[in-house]
Specification:
It is a single chain. By secondary structure, the chain is of the alpha+beta class. It has four helices and eleven strands. The strands form two sheets. A nine-stranded mixed β-sheet has the order 4-3-5-6-11-7-8-9-10, covered by helices on one side. It has a two-stranded antiparallel ribbon with strand order 1-2. A hairpin with an 8-residue loop joins strand 9 and strand 10. Helix 1 packs across helix 3 and helix 2 crosses helix 3.
Length: about 220
């Protein structure tokens, strides 16, 4: 068990905000969103507090992305036990989860069809905000500004509905894609978190379905 870090009230407030955003949307907030929520004059103030949290081992900061904030589960557990709280990302049912890793998905076939499953991992349940049903290997960099990189493993909870702003696994025609779900007056948009990729507008006649919600992210090299 790591040494319990001592956080200032402001650092604890920012940590709670990061955890809450991940639980709500599947991704951490941007520095600008933290600054706006907490009334900072600039995103630089949020960055300074995040750097302090990273030095204390509570989070990891990933460069090159506006949402590159990773929670460190062991340190969080020690911190919350010291505060007399339950670990903040609890899954009370099982200490370990057996999660199938889904590779490429063939057109028109279910994501969890046996031919799509590359292998199965045993994962610690406390790594995730909500219980995932499978891991999906991310392909491409369309979500890099959400901290989701090519080769990452996205933890996905099966779902057919989503709230606007959540990161989803969606099926559009013959393709399965990871995007931020946005509901508009005209219908639905699938928004990339990379300015090099265009927003996908889902038309009324398009074959579209939500397959799941992002509930966590794992760097592939953590499992090697």
């Amino acid at each position: 068990m790591p040494e319990t870090p001592k956080l200032t009230d402001r650092q604890q407030q920012i940590l709670d905000l990061v955890q809450s955003a991940i639980e709500r949307t599947g991704a951490p907030p941007t520095r600008a969103e933290i600054a706006n929520e907490l009334g900072f004059r600039s995103a630089n103030a949020a960055e300074e507090h995040l750097q302090a949290l990273a030095r204390k081992g509570v989070i990891e900061l990933v460069g090159g992305t506006s949402r590159g904030i990773r929670l460190q589960s062991d340190t969080l557990r020690a911190l919350n036990e010291a505060r007399g709280k339950q670990f903040s990302l609890p899954l009370p049912s099982l200490a370990q989860l057996s999660l199938p890793l889904v590779g490429r998905v063939a057109a028109g076939s279910p994501i969890l069809a046996q031919e799509h499953i590359d292998r199965t991992f045993l994962m610690e349940a406390s790594m995730f905000s909500r219980r995932p049903d499978y891991l999906l290997k991310v392909r491409g960099m369309s979500m890099k500004d959400a901290g989701i990189m090519d080769g990452d493993l996205l933890a996905v909870q099966k779902a057919s509905e989503a709230r606007s702003g959540q990161i989803v696994v969606a099926r559009l025609g013959d393709d399965v894609t990871v995007k931020r779900f946005k509901r508009t007056r005209g219908g639905v948009e699938l928004v990339a978190e990379n300015p090099e990729f265009k927003t996908i507008v889902v038309g009324p006649g398009d074959a579209f379905a939500i397959e799941g919600l992002a509930v966590g992210l794992i760097r592939n090299n953590m499992l090697m």
